[in-house]
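forwarding from the other thread:

> can someone predict this with glutamic acid?

sure thing
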Amino acid sequence: MGHTWAVSDTTKREDSLHEAANAQIRRAADLIDLKPEYRLILSEPENEVVVNFPVRLDSGELRMFRGYRIQHNNVLGPYKGGLRFHPDVDLDEVKALAAWMTFKCSLVGLPYGGAKGGVTVNPREYSDRELERLVRRFTHQLGDTIGPEIDIPAPDVGTNAQMMDWIMDTYANVSGPGGRQQLRGVVTGKSVAVGGSVGREAATGQGVLYALRHWCGETGQRLAGLKVSIQGFGNVGSHFARLAALEGCVIVAAADHTATLANHDGIDVPALFDYARTNRRIRGFEKADEIETEELFDIPVDAFVPAALENQITAERAHRMSCRVIVEAANGPTTATAEQTLMGKGVEIIPDVLANAGGVVVSYFEWLQNQSGRSWRVDDVDSRLREIIWDANDKVVRMKAQLGCSHREAAYAVSLTRLADVYDRRGIFP
Ligand code: GLU
């Protein structure tokens, strides 16, 4: 039986991130003999929403912005995934990020599908008032694309709890009366005061640390004393660093878009964490040496944690890197050729869909709290998060042994197995 390709794809290009995401999926699909029909369905998003909208700047000038919401798949439940505000946001990137959400949610057993969105904007160039107008207008323009049972956005690169609060408020204001509690579940990652969950902000970093701890268990070593470098010191990188340092990891280097800092004896992470909160950058922190950006990849460490953007670990950098494990806190940080190089050197890569799933797991807890009108205590959030992440890591390690494949392929194999099982039972409409 033939499988025809009827969709024209104007975003297909040499360096396509979406194509790279599809290639990862194809490799795992081969390993588990996934039905060709399911591959076909999963290779394109279900809905691609692109909106252009005006925002009045403080100067009085009117500027147009482009926003996206890509809904990849909802066979497991409502679409779920973050919103990214970054100058490089484009359709191809958001399509890849949306697909990764489907596999992430499936892997950790959440009742969600995958989506991602964003606006092509550098939020640092706008005032809070301008950003508020932008977020509210974008939300309004998305209309019924989102909803607590339809598609639930969350923070990602360049967005934060305050922006999620504005999304929720805008959505609630334009919705009819009733369901005020549940309406708050239209978005997660909100401030605790308006229906967010305790523990959500640190959740992704916490999950990254659980993944690293799990790897330590597998390889028979202690977490305390591990030398770690971190690329990215935003929400994910900074919380990971703080929690890892509490466990005795030695953070020898940390980088953000303003500087790369190193200290052989370990950076004073609590001080750097506070500095980064206050200054919104790490440049100027005095208790570490500032080094060249590229030197980050030359420092020998046990664990390297990319927590910034995609395609940061290139083949060229991979050749220079000396580490034993890479824990992908960011989405898509390692290029396919870099991965080959690293695997050739015996470096283990804990893939993004597994390593950074802590965020969406606690988003799910937040959504459950909004549905029930009850808030959970921080120790409930932490213990349930730990259980889910641990269980997913166990499953991936078992799959890896069974298939004799890489960590990434095993993660996709677990994820695809669940999706295939649901498709087998539900069938394909009509
Ligand atoms: N943006 C995060 C991610 O890539 C969180 C998504 C969510 O909480 O829905 O996983």
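The chain has two domains: 3-195, 202-355. thats all i got for now
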